[in-house]
Amino acid sequence: MANKKVALITGGSGGIGSAICRQLAKANYRIVVNYHTNRTKAEATLNSLANEGHHLFKCSITVSEQVVQMADFVEQQYGRLDVLVNNSGITKPVPHHDLEGLDDEWFDRIFQLNCRGAFACVRAFKSLLQKGEDSIIVNISSIAARTGVGSNVAYCASKAAMDSMTRSLARALAPKIRVVSLAPGWVMGEYAQTFPKAYIDEQKSKTPLARIAEAEDVAKALVSIVENFTFSTGCIFTVDGGRPLL
């Protein structure tokens, strides 16, 4: 295998996460698939990967001690980490006007996973990432960070916080580690598929490219950023079909 680089994807068994794992594996990265609860899906993701040298690791990124254990595992197995993809996230639909419907527990859960968990991963893997020649952290954000339109107010705010963290960390970790956000619009994953067809068709009509992204669109963009945008850091890259234009 010519490329001996290692990539870890949090939430690697989900729709976008598994697509990212597959595309990076095709590019000859050795993959660590992080998951928390669904081992069956994680194993299916692992078994779908091209090439060799891949592993699973069960860990909740909201528990910092477990994240440190995951970093220790990567160091023992590989001695390096070249790509950290902070993909884990959570949300639930709550209309933005329904302030009572977004209770404190859900608000905190969303920020703990979407933002604080990503920071915990950066903190734990910093020393491993610094060993590489061209290491990168990719935070999976959302255009909801910019538009304020999304599944609920806390979700939009958590992604805006992630983008702000991207800029702060890009400055703090330079020049050894690049840090970027990748911000999709609607993606035809498990969440989108819970909505009626008429609603999905409406979202397509609001997008200049007249379709909703597939998870593979996001994953291919990520590989391109990792491999080709080697002089970019602190950036927010969008994969949204031009949605904010309409």
How would you characterize the overall build of this protein?
The chain has 246 residues and is an alpha/beta fold. It has a single domain, classed as NAD(P)-binding Rossmann-like Domain (Rossmann fold, 3-Layer(aba) Sandwich), CATH 3.40.50.720. 44% of the residues lie in helices and 15% in strands. The chain contains eight helices and seven strands, in the order E-H-E-H-E-H-E-H-E-H-H-E-H-H-E. A seven-stranded parallel beta sheet has the order 3-2-1-4-5-6-7, with helices on both faces. It starts with 5 loop residues before the first strand and ends in a 7-residue tail after the last strand.
Order of helices and strands: EHEHEHEHEHHEHHE
| Biggest sheet features | 7 strands, parallel
* Mean of all residue-level pLDDT scores: 95
By secondary-structure content and strand pairing, the structural class works out as alpha/beta
Task: Give the termini distance in whole angstroms.
Answer: 45 Å
% residues in beta strands: 5-15%
The CATH architecture designation is 3-Layer(aba) Sandwich
Q: What count of domains describes the coordinates? A: 1
Q: Indicate the CATH topology.
A: Rossmann fold
Helix content: 40-55%
List low-pLDDT spans: none
Count of helices?
8
Provide the CATH top-level class: Alpha Beta
Number of strands: 7
Largest sheet, order of strands side by side? 3-2-1-4-5-6-7
Radius of gyration, whole Å: 17 Å
Shape: globular
